[in-house]
Amino acid sequence: MPTFSAPDGTRLAYRVTGDGDPVVCLPGGPADSRYLADLGGLSAHRQLIIPDLRGTGRSAVPEDTSTYRCDHLVDDVEALREHLALPRMDLLGHSAGTNIATQYAARHPKNLGKLALIGPSLRAVGIEVSARTRRDLARLREHEPWFPRAYAALEAISEGTGSDWEAVAPFFWGRWDAAARRLHASGRPENQEAVALFAAKGAFDPQTTRAALVACETPVLLLTGEFDVNSPPRSAAEFATLFPDARLVVQPGAGHYPWVDDSERFVAATAAFLR
């Protein structure tokens, strides 16, 4: 597995899959990037360069754990671009990884070709998702057999009286079947310190980021699932308005992992944008 050196000397690993023009793909979590696999077959259209964020997968644990903070991870992405000798790179982020990608776009717009935000997180730009928005979206699944327990847990979390995230897991998938359960179990972040410090104080500066995005001419795709309670379509639409050149795609029947729920539909939309 190839590696490169971060600005602070931490050795970071990445994997390469597929052929064609490269696109750097940032995982969420922070979690082992293996859950991205080949993004449902996107590697048939583009070469995917998928780094393991510091302290995850095969990347080294940094000496200074404060560098787990999201804004510091932007520097790692820039170091990867320089390592790959890409004058401009296409960048894709998923979930929490979209916070890194969004801040990268704000700080290094001239180094970007295209930007794809999949199941976009909204923290980097300070968009709040209301409890009502999540509840309304969740109720679209009320015919599912797992709904009563999952919805009760979601309400408790929204009201600040519960924290049973395992119970709400079905809301993150378009189909809560055996395959989704296996993927969910295998995708849990192992480095809890990296997770805890990702959004530490200073990680986000929404006002500055928003101001920079206004001048970012990079074409942007925001793709979210119809049922994604983490990245509701209504909130993703608001996010899209912050970019001068953005396109929103809501994938029918999908949750937070659209390449798993319907790989053909996901790849068709994403490959067409990156083409």
List keywords for this structure.
eight-stranded mixed β-sheet, alpha/beta, 16% strand, Rossmann fold, 275 residues
What's the quick description here?
This protein has 275 residues and is an alpha/beta fold. The chain has helices at 70-84, 97-107, 131-138, 147-158, 178-186, 192-198, 206-213, 233-240, 258-261, 263-274; strands spanning 3-5, 11-17, 22-26, 47-51, 89-94, 112-118, 220-225, 246-251.
Provide a descriptive summary of the structure in words.
With 275 residues, the protein is α/β, with parallel strands linked by helices. The chain has one domain: Alpha/Beta hydrolase fold, catalytic domain (Rossmann fold, 3-Layer(aba) Sandwich). It contains 10 helices and 8 strands. It has an 8-stranded mixed β-sheet, with helices on both faces. Helix 8 (233-240) links the parallel strand 7 and strand 8 (246-251). Helix 1 (70-84) packs across helix 2 and helix 2 packs across helix 7. The mean pLDDT is 95.
